[in-house]
Amino acid sequence: MKNQKICVIGCGNLGRSIVKGLLNKNTFDSNHVTATRRNVDLIADLATEGALVTSDNCEAVRNSNIILVAVKPYNVGKIIHEIKGEIRKGQHVLVSLATGLTTEEISEMLDHKIPVFRAMPNIAANISESATCICSRDASPQETKNIKAVFDCVGESLIINEELMEAATILGACGIAFVFRFIRAMIQGGIQIGFDANTAKQIVSQTVKGAAEMLQINDDHPESEIDKVTTPKGCTIVGLNEMEHQGFSSALIKGIVTSFQKIER
């Protein structure tokens, strides 16, 4: 990937997270990473870390092989209309991070038939811990491998069928907010039973991190790990049962489904 050049068009929160992740991983030479935003002052820190920073999207495309479009869905058509004159078949691959726009719709906006990808990372990309789902259209196995390698720089990525991309958006991109809300509630509970906020945050953050890593390393079902902690008549099972009585799992599932229904409209 050292010979590849990449631009990220529209470096808001998600775009800048990806650029930071790419720079931290050193898979790309820093001068092969271009970040764009209308107000470049807002991404000046990326320049100090080695990225090329510009407000000129066409210039960014001319200097890149891989184009990441990280703007809101309603701005994708405008951006593609702006840059498509610079896109060359056989030279460029386009990756959209926009929710709800299919690869077919994006391909129809282009003058040339080039490989088009959709990717849905989350904001943990800036610490190289994103969960990213990817699908493609008119892409070769090697091109797919290259794009997966891009997002492996910012966490873990997997290739899925396009019909699951909206569900992936909810579970991965929205899901990180759901996890933060759970962590916040755990911290508030910790404060109520006696900890100061910083200590509670430290305990809860490490507990959540440890739980996630156990699932990944042990490749086990969460309920199996729960069984190891719930002793008869113990405080863990009492707490779990009370949470379920209050609708904990049901509320979480309903939240996920409601978010999915919103994105499907």
Q: In the CATH hierarchy, what is the superfamily of the largest domain?
A: NAD(P)-binding Rossmann-like Domain
Shape descriptor:
elongated
Number of domains: 2
Query: Whole-number radius of gyration?
Result: 21 Å
Listing every helix as H and every strand as E from the N terminus to the C terminus, the arrangement reads EHEHEHEHEHEEHEHHHHH
Overall mean confidence score, pLDDT: 93
What share of residues are in beta strands?
5-15%
Total of DSSP H or I helical runs spanning 4+ residues: 11
Task: Assign the CATH class of the largest domain.
Answer: Alpha Beta
- Which strand order spans the largest sheet, edge to edge or round the barrel? 3-2-1-4-5-6-7-8
Could you characterize what this model shows?
With 265 residues, the chain is α/β, with parallel strands linked by helices. It has 2 domains: 6-160, Rossmann fold; 168-264, ProC C-terminal domain-like (ProC C-terminal domain-like fold). It is 52% helix and 14% strand. The chain has helices at residues 13-25, 44-48, 57-62, 73-83, 103-109, 141-152, 165-192, 197-218, 222-227, 235-245, 248-264, and strands spanning 6-9, 33-36, 52-54, 66-69, 93-96, 116-120, 130-137, 155-159. The radius of gyration is 21 Å and the shape is elongated. The model has no long low-confidence stretch (mean pLDDT 93).
